[in-house]
Specification:
disordered N terminus, FAS1 domain, seven-stranded mixed beta sheet, alpha+beta
Length: 447
């Protein structure tokens, strides 16, 4: 209720700001008549509460600025009265000015957009987002002429000198990540999954910021069809790790997305499983899910829309998803070890890169994996696998047994550096999967 109260305050302030209230502002100091957004609002008795809110926050002056242009979604008196009842407060005076300001600004977007120029989609408002230099998003659905699935647009194109006003029947409240999913019908499957997994409360927490990669309904339909199940067939215990695998800690806008491995909120063996992001050909997650829309800003984070549901990867999946392991994947398949390494585990895999295999093939004077038999490859590959989920911080110097009973690894720890034998280096550690962890190495281990 406290969060809703704050949101209401922000909405009222924004509305007031947009509709410049005072009739004495109808003319400039030189006596020239003006027709700004503030003037228009002040001249309409159905916007009297909005005008009062604008005056209280000082936004009436901002919306009277002819040097800028705005599009204002203006709540009527009835809309404000309904909100006051919803929030169980007597008047605008019960709402802190800062809260009211942000709510009012949530009704305003920069630039003049007539009804014919507004299409279904997300729009950045002037309301401050969860981090510096961010602005909250609103969702406009022109098929139903609604905003955020909450407010109906009842009248459009009331023109002012510095913008345009569209009338709405309900005050808008800044939305959390969960609210945004609820507001957009293309996320109905995601909403149902989040609800069933009992994650709605956690993802609506306004004390934290998250980055969510949100799958569409089509993405869920494709996954469920592939699995031959319905959403109702999946338990909360099954859904929770999948959904949390789509969430990163912190606020990461599209402009700050970089290639690499990033820890998600989904865990295995008490460790955060990683999500791989590649940026060479657009933004791809785990080498198969495309980011199709970005930067939907909520009160507690940011949403990027994706076209496929992400599944927590096994150690085999981690290799399949990264092109630097293509030779390793070929070797694992030829040695018929993919099924074994996709099992429960846990496994700790020291994974050689393509360059590491190329150096081996050169030393052996062979053309590649095709030149080696399954019987030759199997002991080599098993020498790279240790039982257990052993992250780099838990490794210690000494001998470690592998799944090749004839080969142990001599681990050397020097600060944060991990070496196997005298010349094999771990170049990337702790790539956590659902059934184990991968450490990337620069040379193939030979039994």
């Amino acid at each position: 209720m406290k969060n809703y109260f704050k949101l209401f305050t922000l909405v009222s302030l924004l509305s007031a700001t947009l509709f410049f209230v005072s009739c004495k502002n109808d003319s400039t100091s030189s006596g020239i008549k003006t027709h700004t957004i503030t003037d228009v609002a002040a001249s309409n008795s159905d916007f009297s509460i909005l005008v009062s809110a604008l005056k209280k926050t000082g936004l009436d002056v901002a919306l009277a600025n002819n040097a800028s242009s705005f599009t204002v979604f203006a709540p009527t008196n009835a809309a404000f009265t309904s909100l006051l009842a919803e929030l169980k407060v007597a008047s605008l005076n019960d709402i802190p000015t800062a809260t009211l300001t942000n709510v009012l600004l949530y009704h305003v977007k920069s630039g003049k957009a007539s009804a014919s120029q507004i299409t279904t989609g997300y729009y950045s408002t002037l309301s401050a987002g969860p981090v510096a230099n961010s602005n909250l998003s609103m969702y406009v659905d022109m098929s139903s002429t609604t905003i955020n699935g909450r407010s109906k647009i009842t009248k459009t194109d009331i023109m002012a000198d510095n913008g345009v006003i569209h009338v709405i029947d309900k005050v808008l409240l800044p939305m959390s990540l969960v609210d945004h999913a609820l507001a957009n019908p293309m996320f109905s499957s995601l909403v149902a999954a989040v609800s069933k997994a009992n994650l709605a409360t956690a993802l609506a927490d306004n004390t934290k910021n998250y980055t969510v990669f949100a799958p569409t309904n089509a993405a869920f339909s494709a996954l469920l069809s592939k699995l031959g199940v319905t959403l109702g067939d999946l338990s909360a215990g099954t859904l929770s790790p999948i959904l949390l695998y789509h969430v990163l800690n912190g606020y990461i806008p599209a402009a700050q997305v970089t290639a690499g491995y990033f820890p998600t909120l989904s865990t295995a063996f008490g460790k955060n499983m990683v999500l791989q992001i590649s940026t060479a050909n657009g933004v791809l997650l785990n080498n198969n899910s495309k980011v199709i829309a970005t930067d939907v800003v909520a009160t507690n984070g940011i949403i990027h829309v994706i076209d496929q549901v992400l599944l927590p990867p096994t150690v085999v999946d981690l290799a399949l998803q990264n092109s630097i392991f293509s030779t390793l994947v070929m070797a694992v398949v030829k040695a018929d070890l993919a099924t074994t390494l996709s099992g429960t585990g846990p496994f700790t895999v020291f994974a050689p890169t393509n360059d590491a295999f190329a150096a081996l093939f050169s030393a052996l004077k062979v053309s590649g994996v095709d030149a080696l038999t399954k019987e030759q490859l199997t002991p080599i590959l098993l020498a790279h696998v240790v039982s257990g989920n052993i992250q780099s911080g838990s490794l210690s110097s000494g001998s470690v047994s592998t799944l090749n009973s004839n080969k142990s690894l001599n681990i050397m720890i020097n600060g944060s550096a991990v070496t196997i034998g005298s010349d094999i280096h771990v170049v990337k550690a702790d790539v956590q999967g659902s059934n184990g962890v991968v450490h990337v190495i620069d040379k193939v281990i030979i039994p």
